[in-house]
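Hi everyone,

Forwarding the result from last night's run.
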Amino acid sequence: MDENAALIDRFEEDRGRLRAVAYRMLGSVSEAEDAVQETWLRVSRADTGSVENLSGWLTTVVSRICLNMLRKRESRREEPLEVRAPQPATGPEDGSDPEQEALLADSVGVALLVVLDTLAPAERLAFVLHDLFAVPFDEIGPMIERSPTAARQLASRARRRVKGGAAAPAPDADLARRRRVVEAFLTATRGGDFTALLSLLHPDVVLRADKAVVPSPEPIVVHGARPVAKGAMAAMGRARYTGVALVDGTVGLVMAPQGRLSVALTFAVAADGSITGIEVIAERERLAELEVAELGDA
């Protein structure tokens, strides 16, 4: 086997891990693939003969590429994707496989991707590499031109955001009850189970959606279990990119194709477990004010 063939084989061994790093850094399958491909182009032109830890070196390369992509994204001040929740959807319009995008988002955690998208590039890199891939701060620091101590502080700051550092969560018992209800709502919506949805909704449930959801000249108000359930069925395609999260301290849903928050749902849940109210938030100013965090293990 010649040297180039050996390098190709060695790179392929690390491709899955590199893609995992890039996806968590960028939140997009297509961008992650671009970052991995750029990593290969760089490694194929480099002299790697003296590299003792090739896996670590590849992680550094792909991380720096992702960091540059995040900085370019930030400098362009890209707006979140415009997603109309009630309409059928085919998935992201970036050429990536919608099913793969949805599966990855679900496996990583939609709430985590949403919070990561709010972090500064250096914070995101420090948190992802250290907390998710156990890269030591001694290696992270040089990537972001900071000391290991500064890198540790960035990761700590990001960790507080991920876990929810501002909004006070509801008591554990109430969170557990609400979580069961919201997860059942998401499962029924994803599965198109109209009967299950009706069983979760109070007969007099009220859904309120802001003007950006449809869009419409005025906010939308829907009364009654059957009309609300029909609206949820219309959003079944978008439910693939939706996950349970802490939203302002209580259990809600966040929708995030390509890892960018586009819609949030909050729920009012009665003592008997029925859903009495749903608020659908899509206006960018309102989304920016929400405190979104990961929900711990059940």
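The chain is about 55% helix and 15% strand.

Cheers,
N.
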